[in-house]
Amino acid sequence: MTNELEPQRTSLDPVTIHADLSEWIIKVTGETNAIISEFDRPSGSGMSSETLLFDSTWGEAENEVHKKLVARLAPTDQDIPVFPNYNLSSQVKVMKLVEQLTDIKVPKVLWEEASIDVLGVPFFVMEQVQGRVPPDIPPYVFGGWLFDATPESQLQLQELCVGIIAQLHQIKQKSPDTDFLEFHTKGDTALERHFTNQKEYYHWVVQDGRQHQVIEQAFDWLESHWPEESETVLSWGDARIGNIMFDSKSLEPVAVLDWEMAGLAPVEVDLGWMIFMHKFFQVIAEALEFPGMPKFMTSRDVTSKFTDLTGIVPKNIDWFEIYAATRHAIIMSRINDRSVHFGESEWTDDVDSAIPHRDYLWSRIQ
Q1: At CB < 8 A and 24+ separation, what contacts does 338-347 make?
Q2: Which residue from 75, 167, 246, 251 could staple onto 102, CB 3.0 to 4.6 Å apart?
Q3: 173: pLDDT confidence band, cut at 50, 70 and 90?
Q4: Rounded CA gap, 114 and 124, in Å?
Q5: 226 located within any domain
Q6: Is residue 27 part of a domain?
Q7: Closest CA to 281 of 268, 270, 291
Q8: 164 part of a folded domain
Q9: How many CA within 13 A on the CB side of residue 9?
Q10: How confident is the model at residue 43 (pLDDT cuts 50, 70, 90)?
Protein backbone atom coordinates (compact mmCIF):
# COMPACT_ATOMS: atom_id res chain seq x y z
CA MET A 1 0.00 0.00 0.00
CA THR A 2 1.35 3.43 -0.91
CA ASN A 3 1.90 5.86 1.95
CA GLU A 4 -0.01 9.06 1.21
CA LEU A 5 3.00 10.99 2.46
CA GLU A 6 5.26 9.19 0.01
CA PRO A 7 6.31 11.45 -2.92
CA GLN A 8 6.33 9.94 -6.37
CA ARG A 9 9.81 8.97 -7.52
CA THR A 10 9.46 7.72 -11.08
CA SER A 11 7.17 7.38 -14.06
CA LEU A 12 8.55 3.92 -14.92
CA ASP A 13 5.82 1.31 -15.23
CA PRO A 14 6.30 -1.51 -12.67
CA VAL A 15 4.63 -4.11 -14.90
CA THR A 16 7.03 -3.33 -17.74
CA ILE A 17 10.03 -3.32 -15.40
CA HIS A 18 9.01 -6.71 -14.01
CA ALA A 19 8.74 -8.20 -17.49
CA ASP A 20 12.05 -6.74 -18.68
CA LEU A 21 13.90 -7.83 -15.54
CA SER A 22 12.47 -11.33 -15.96
CA GLU A 23 14.03 -11.58 -19.42
CA TRP A 24 17.29 -10.09 -18.18
CA ILE A 25 17.68 -12.50 -15.25
CA ILE A 26 17.57 -15.41 -17.70
CA LYS A 27 20.43 -13.82 -19.64
CA VAL A 28 22.72 -13.02 -16.70
CA THR A 29 22.22 -16.36 -14.93
CA GLY A 30 22.38 -18.40 -18.13
CA GLU A 31 19.42 -20.41 -16.85
CA THR A 32 16.32 -20.62 -19.04
CA ASN A 33 14.15 -21.41 -16.03
CA ALA A 34 15.19 -18.30 -14.07
CA ILE A 35 12.17 -16.43 -12.75
CA ILE A 36 11.43 -13.30 -10.71
CA SER A 37 8.76 -13.27 -8.01
CA GLU A 38 7.68 -11.17 -5.01
CA PHE A 39 8.37 -8.00 -6.99
CA ASP A 40 7.93 -4.82 -4.92
CA ARG A 41 8.91 -1.17 -4.54
CA PRO A 42 9.87 -0.26 -0.95
CA SER A 43 8.71 3.00 0.57
CA GLY A 44 9.81 5.14 3.48
CA SER A 45 13.23 6.46 2.46
CA GLY A 46 15.41 7.49 -0.45
CA MET A 47 14.54 10.02 -3.14
CA SER A 48 17.25 10.03 -5.73
CA SER A 49 17.13 6.51 -7.18
CA GLU A 50 14.54 3.84 -7.83
CA THR A 51 14.89 0.73 -5.67
CA LEU A 52 13.20 -2.58 -6.46
CA LEU A 53 12.94 -5.67 -4.28
CA PHE A 54 12.38 -9.11 -5.75
CA ASP A 55 13.05 -12.83 -5.36
CA SER A 56 14.71 -14.85 -8.07
CA THR A 57 15.06 -18.61 -8.54
CA TRP A 58 17.08 -20.53 -11.13
CA GLY A 59 18.65 -23.94 -11.63
CA GLU A 60 17.17 -27.36 -10.87
CA ALA A 61 17.08 -29.91 -8.04
CA GLU A 62 20.19 -29.76 -5.85
CA ASN A 63 21.61 -26.94 -8.01
CA GLU A 64 18.60 -24.67 -7.53
CA VAL A 65 19.46 -21.17 -6.36
CA HIS A 66 17.03 -18.87 -4.57
CA LYS A 67 18.01 -15.30 -3.77
CA LYS A 68 16.34 -12.20 -2.43
CA LEU A 69 17.65 -9.31 -4.53
CA VAL A 70 17.62 -5.53 -4.80
CA ALA A 71 17.88 -3.56 -8.04
CA ARG A 72 19.13 0.01 -7.85
CA LEU A 73 18.11 2.06 -10.90
CA ALA A 74 19.40 5.39 -12.11
CA PRO A 75 16.57 7.91 -12.55
CA THR A 76 15.17 8.82 -15.95
CA ASP A 77 15.80 12.30 -17.32
CA GLN A 78 12.09 13.03 -17.60
CA ASP A 79 11.57 12.40 -13.87
CA ILE A 80 13.67 15.40 -12.79
CA PRO A 81 16.64 13.56 -11.23
CA VAL A 82 17.86 14.94 -7.92
CA PHE A 83 21.50 15.00 -9.05
CA PRO A 84 22.99 15.90 -12.43
CA ASN A 85 25.02 12.69 -12.73
CA TYR A 86 24.40 9.09 -11.67
CA ASN A 87 27.49 6.96 -12.03
CA LEU A 88 26.29 3.58 -10.83
CA SER A 89 29.63 1.99 -11.71
CA SER A 90 31.27 4.40 -9.28
CA GLN A 91 28.79 3.42 -6.57
CA VAL A 92 29.57 -0.24 -7.09
CA LYS A 93 33.29 0.47 -7.06
CA VAL A 94 33.19 2.45 -3.81
CA MET A 95 31.11 -0.26 -2.11
CA LYS A 96 33.69 -2.87 -3.07
CA LEU A 97 36.51 -0.60 -1.88
CA VAL A 98 34.82 -0.08 1.48
CA GLU A 99 34.25 -3.82 1.82
CA GLN A 100 37.90 -4.50 0.99
CA LEU A 101 39.51 -1.92 3.27
CA THR A 102 37.19 -1.84 6.32
CA ASP A 103 34.91 -4.03 8.39
CA ILE A 104 31.89 -2.00 7.25
CA LYS A 105 29.15 -4.25 5.92
CA VAL A 106 27.84 -3.39 2.48
CA PRO A 107 25.47 -5.41 0.29
CA LYS A 108 27.09 -7.84 -2.14
CA VAL A 109 26.70 -6.66 -5.74
CA LEU A 110 26.00 -9.53 -8.12
CA TRP A 111 25.50 -7.83 -11.48
CA GLU A 112 25.87 -4.42 -13.04
CA GLU A 113 24.01 -3.37 -16.19
CA ALA A 114 25.62 -0.25 -17.60
CA SER A 115 23.53 -0.06 -20.78
CA ILE A 116 20.05 1.43 -21.10
CA ASP A 117 18.86 -1.42 -23.31
CA VAL A 118 17.12 -3.41 -20.57
CA LEU A 119 15.18 -0.90 -18.45
CA GLY A 120 15.92 2.38 -20.20
CA VAL A 121 18.39 3.32 -17.44
CA PRO A 122 21.55 1.73 -16.00
CA PHE A 123 21.13 -0.39 -12.87
CA PHE A 124 22.86 -2.89 -10.63
CA VAL A 125 21.57 -5.82 -8.62
CA MET A 126 22.72 -6.79 -5.14
CA GLU A 127 21.69 -9.27 -2.49
CA GLN A 128 19.03 -8.22 -0.02
CA VAL A 129 20.04 -7.81 3.60
CA GLN A 130 17.50 -8.39 6.35
CA GLY A 131 17.20 -5.73 9.01
CA ARG A 132 15.42 -2.47 9.78
CA VAL A 133 16.11 1.15 8.89
CA PRO A 134 15.01 4.32 10.70
CA PRO A 135 12.52 5.74 8.17
CA ASP A 136 12.53 9.14 6.51
CA ILE A 137 8.81 9.13 5.71
CA PRO A 138 7.43 9.73 8.25
CA PRO A 139 10.70 10.59 10.01
CA TYR A 140 11.81 8.35 12.86
CA VAL A 141 11.66 11.30 15.29
CA PHE A 142 7.85 11.06 15.25
CA GLY A 143 7.69 7.46 16.47
CA GLY A 144 8.64 3.89 15.72
CA TRP A 145 11.21 1.42 16.89
CA LEU A 146 14.10 3.86 17.37
CA PHE A 147 11.93 6.54 19.00
CA ASP A 148 10.54 3.93 21.40
CA ALA A 149 13.94 2.41 22.22
CA THR A 150 15.53 2.93 25.62
CA PRO A 151 18.02 5.79 26.00
CA GLU A 152 20.73 3.15 26.33
CA SER A 153 19.76 1.54 23.03
CA GLN A 154 19.57 4.90 21.29
CA LEU A 155 23.06 5.73 22.55
CA GLN A 156 24.35 2.34 21.40
CA LEU A 157 22.96 2.89 17.91
CA GLN A 158 24.38 6.40 17.77
CA GLU A 159 27.85 5.19 18.72
CA LEU A 160 27.72 2.37 16.17
CA CYS A 161 26.88 4.92 13.48
CA VAL A 162 29.82 7.12 14.45
CA GLY A 163 31.94 3.99 14.34
CA ILE A 164 31.14 3.60 10.64
CA ILE A 165 32.56 7.06 9.92
CA ALA A 166 35.57 6.25 12.08
CA GLN A 167 36.25 3.20 9.93
CA LEU A 168 35.87 5.19 6.71
CA HIS A 169 38.50 7.53 8.10
CA GLN A 170 40.97 4.67 7.59
CA ILE A 171 40.62 5.02 3.81
CA LYS A 172 42.93 7.90 3.04
CA GLN A 173 43.12 9.88 -0.17
CA LYS A 174 46.28 8.02 -1.13
CA SER A 175 44.74 4.59 -0.55
CA PRO A 176 44.50 2.31 -3.60
CA ASP A 177 41.98 3.25 -6.28
CA THR A 178 40.46 6.41 -4.79
CA ASP A 179 41.15 8.68 -7.78
CA PHE A 180 37.73 7.89 -9.25
CA LEU A 181 36.17 9.70 -6.24
CA GLU A 182 37.91 12.99 -6.97
CA PHE A 183 35.76 15.99 -7.93
CA HIS A 184 37.14 17.34 -11.18
CA THR A 185 36.48 21.00 -10.55
CA LYS A 186 38.29 24.09 -9.28
CA GLY A 187 40.09 24.02 -5.95
CA ASP A 188 43.54 23.40 -4.51
CA THR A 189 42.33 21.06 -1.75
CA ALA A 190 39.79 18.27 -1.56
CA LEU A 191 37.45 20.43 0.53
CA GLU A 192 37.72 23.33 -1.92
CA ARG A 193 36.84 20.99 -4.78
CA HIS A 194 33.98 19.49 -2.78
CA PHE A 195 32.68 22.99 -2.05
CA THR A 196 32.97 24.09 -5.68
CA ASN A 197 31.14 20.94 -6.74
CA GLN A 198 28.25 21.87 -4.44
CA LYS A 199 28.09 25.43 -5.80
CA GLU A 200 27.97 24.00 -9.31
CA TYR A 201 25.20 21.68 -8.18
CA TYR A 202 23.23 24.66 -6.86
CA HIS A 203 23.56 26.52 -10.17
CA TRP A 204 22.39 23.40 -11.99
CA VAL A 205 19.32 23.14 -9.74
CA VAL A 206 18.33 26.79 -10.24
CA GLN A 207 19.01 26.96 -13.96
CA ASP A 208 15.41 28.15 -14.38
CA GLY A 209 16.56 31.47 -12.95
CA ARG A 210 15.17 31.34 -9.41
CA GLN A 211 17.34 32.44 -6.51
CA HIS A 212 17.40 31.00 -3.01
CA GLN A 213 18.62 33.81 -0.81
CA VAL A 214 19.21 31.53 2.16
CA ILE A 215 21.43 29.19 0.11
CA GLU A 216 23.41 31.97 -1.55
CA GLN A 217 24.02 33.80 1.71
CA ALA A 218 24.98 30.52 3.36
CA PHE A 219 27.60 29.96 0.65
CA ASP A 220 28.91 33.49 1.29
CA TRP A 221 29.09 32.81 5.02
CA LEU A 222 30.90 29.53 4.48
CA GLU A 223 33.49 31.15 2.21
CA SER A 224 34.12 33.98 4.67
CA HIS A 225 34.54 31.55 7.59
CA TRP A 226 36.66 28.95 5.80
CA PRO A 227 37.84 26.25 8.26
CA GLU A 228 41.18 24.71 8.97
CA GLU A 229 41.26 21.55 6.87
CA SER A 230 42.10 18.10 8.17
CA GLU A 231 43.32 15.04 6.28
CA THR A 232 41.43 13.99 3.16
CA VAL A 233 39.63 10.64 3.42
CA LEU A 234 36.93 8.69 1.64
CA SER A 235 33.68 10.52 2.33
CA TRP A 236 30.43 8.54 2.34
CA GLY A 237 28.62 11.75 1.39
CA ASP A 238 25.19 10.70 2.66
CA ALA A 239 26.26 9.63 6.13
CA ARG A 240 23.01 9.30 8.06
CA ILE A 241 21.20 6.68 10.06
CA GLY A 242 18.49 6.39 7.39
CA ASN A 243 21.12 4.81 5.14
CA ILE A 244 22.06 2.13 7.65
CA MET A 245 20.24 -1.16 8.15
CA PHE A 246 20.36 -2.53 11.68
CA ASP A 247 19.90 -6.00 13.15
CA SER A 248 16.49 -6.04 14.84
CA LYS A 249 17.89 -7.51 18.07
CA SER A 250 21.51 -6.49 18.52
CA LEU A 251 21.24 -3.09 16.75
CA GLU A 252 24.49 -3.93 14.98
CA PRO A 253 24.71 -2.38 11.47
CA VAL A 254 24.15 -5.14 8.93
CA ALA A 255 24.36 -2.99 5.79
CA VAL A 256 25.53 0.52 4.93
CA LEU A 257 23.63 1.84 1.92
CA ASP A 258 23.50 4.62 -0.67
CA TRP A 259 26.99 5.62 -1.79
CA GLU A 260 25.99 7.88 -4.68
CA MET A 261 27.26 11.04 -2.92
CA ALA A 262 30.67 9.55 -2.09
CA GLY A 263 33.80 11.55 -2.75
CA LEU A 264 37.05 12.73 -1.19
CA ALA A 265 36.84 15.22 1.67
CA PRO A 266 37.85 15.78 5.31
CA VAL A 267 36.07 13.43 7.73
CA GLU A 268 34.19 16.41 9.18
CA VAL A 269 32.03 16.45 6.03
CA ASP A 270 30.50 13.12 7.05
CA LEU A 271 30.34 13.99 10.74
CA GLY A 272 28.64 17.31 10.03
CA TRP A 273 26.16 15.64 7.67
CA MET A 274 25.24 12.94 10.20
CA ILE A 275 24.70 15.54 12.93
CA PHE A 276 22.71 17.87 10.70
CA MET A 277 20.49 15.20 9.16
CA HIS A 278 19.14 14.37 12.60
CA LYS A 279 18.72 18.08 13.37
CA PHE A 280 16.78 18.43 10.12
CA PHE A 281 14.17 15.94 11.30
CA GLN A 282 14.25 17.37 14.83
CA VAL A 283 13.52 20.87 13.49
CA ILE A 284 10.49 19.49 11.62
CA ALA A 285 9.26 17.67 14.74
CA GLU A 286 9.55 20.75 16.94
CA ALA A 287 7.83 22.93 14.34
CA LEU A 288 4.86 20.54 14.55
CA GLU A 289 5.06 20.59 18.36
CA PHE A 290 6.34 17.03 18.69
CA PRO A 291 9.12 16.28 21.19
CA GLY A 292 11.30 14.44 18.69
CA MET A 293 14.66 13.17 19.95
CA PRO A 294 16.55 16.29 21.12
CA LYS A 295 19.29 14.38 22.93
CA PHE A 296 20.15 12.15 19.98
CA MET A 297 23.11 12.78 17.60
CA THR A 298 24.23 16.00 19.28
CA SER A 299 27.41 17.66 18.03
CA ARG A 300 29.13 17.11 21.34
CA ASP A 301 28.30 13.42 21.60
CA VAL A 302 29.11 12.59 17.98
CA THR A 303 32.47 14.35 17.94
CA SER A 304 33.40 13.03 21.37
CA LYS A 305 32.71 9.45 20.31
CA PHE A 306 34.69 9.93 17.10
CA THR A 307 37.64 11.15 19.17
CA ASP A 308 37.32 8.16 21.51
CA LEU A 309 37.46 5.80 18.52
CA THR A 310 40.23 7.48 16.54
CA GLY A 311 42.14 9.80 18.86
CA ILE A 312 41.37 12.62 16.41
CA VAL A 313 39.51 15.77 17.46
CA PRO A 314 37.23 17.01 14.65
CA LYS A 315 37.89 20.59 13.61
CA ASN A 316 35.35 23.38 13.09
CA ILE A 317 32.37 21.05 13.31
CA ASP A 318 29.95 24.03 13.42
CA TRP A 319 31.13 25.05 9.94
CA PHE A 320 30.56 21.55 8.61
CA GLU A 321 27.06 21.41 10.10
CA ILE A 322 26.19 24.64 8.30
CA TYR A 323 27.78 23.26 5.14
CA ALA A 324 25.58 20.18 5.48
CA ALA A 325 22.48 22.33 5.98
CA THR A 326 23.37 24.33 2.87
CA ARG A 327 23.91 21.21 0.77
CA HIS A 328 20.65 19.72 1.99
CA ALA A 329 18.81 22.95 1.16
CA ILE A 330 19.88 22.51 -2.47
CA ILE A 331 18.56 18.96 -2.44
CA MET A 332 15.24 20.16 -0.97
CA SER A 333 14.93 22.69 -3.78
CA ARG A 334 15.46 19.99 -6.38
CA ILE A 335 13.03 17.64 -4.66
CA ASN A 336 10.41 20.39 -4.85
CA ASP A 337 11.11 20.55 -8.60
CA ARG A 338 10.27 16.84 -8.73
CA SER A 339 7.09 17.36 -6.70
CA VAL A 340 6.00 20.11 -9.07
CA HIS A 341 6.73 17.82 -12.02
CA PHE A 342 4.49 15.10 -10.55
CA GLY A 343 1.73 17.58 -9.66
CA GLU A 344 2.24 17.22 -5.90
CA SER A 345 3.41 20.77 -5.21
CA GLU A 346 3.96 24.16 -6.82
CA TRP A 347 6.45 26.96 -6.65
CA THR A 348 5.42 30.20 -4.93
CA ASP A 349 7.04 33.62 -4.93
CA ASP A 350 8.70 32.64 -1.67
CA VAL A 351 11.00 30.02 -3.17
CA ASP A 352 12.82 29.48 0.12
CA SER A 353 9.60 28.03 1.56
CA ALA A 354 10.53 24.78 -0.24
CA ILE A 355 13.40 24.42 2.26
CA PRO A 356 11.93 23.06 5.52
CA HIS A 357 14.97 24.06 7.57
CA ARG A 358 15.45 27.56 6.16
CA ASP A 359 14.84 29.25 9.54
CA TYR A 360 17.42 26.97 11.12
CA LEU A 361 19.92 27.82 8.40
CA TRP A 362 19.28 31.55 8.69
CA SER A 363 19.81 31.31 12.44
CA ARG A 364 23.22 29.71 11.92
CA ILE A 365 24.60 32.25 9.44
CA GLN A 366 23.37 35.52 10.92
Answers
A1: 338/7, 338/8, 338/9, 338/47, 338/79, 338/80, 338/82, 339/7, 341/79, 341/80, 342/7, 342/8, 344/7, 344/8, 347/210
A2: 167
A3: confident
A4: 8
A5: yes
A6: yes
A7: 291
A8: yes
A9: 21
A10: low
pLDDT tens for each residue of 104-152: 999 999 999 999 999 999 999 999 999 999 999 899 999 999 999 999 9
Active site members:
238
CA 108/CA 96 separation, integer angstroms? 8
Judge if 215 and 311 occupy the same domain: yes
- Return the pLDDT at 45: 44
Q: Cα 251 to chain center, whole Å?
A: 20
* Structural domain harbouring 57: 14-127
Burial 291-326 (b: 16+ CB within 10 A, else e): ebbeebbebebbbebbeeebeeebebbebbbbbbbb
Radius of gyration (Cα) for the chain, nearest Å?
Answer: 21
In a 13 Å sphere around the CA of 330, the CA atoms on its Cβ side amount to: 26
Residue 159 one-letter amino acid = E
Pair (193, 254) in one structural domain: yes
User: pLDDT tens digits, residue range 82-99?
Assistant: 999 889 999 999 999 999
Task: Work out the average pLDDT over 37-53.
Answer: 75
Closest by Cα among 35, 1, 43 to 18: 35
Q: In angstroms, what CA-CA distances link 219 with 123, 195, 224, 265, 365?
A: 34, 9, 9, 17, 10
- Which residue type is seen at 50? E
Per DSSP, the three-state class of 286 is: helix
Spell out the residues 6+ positions from residue 175 whose beta carbon is closer than 8 angstroms to its own: 97, 101, 234
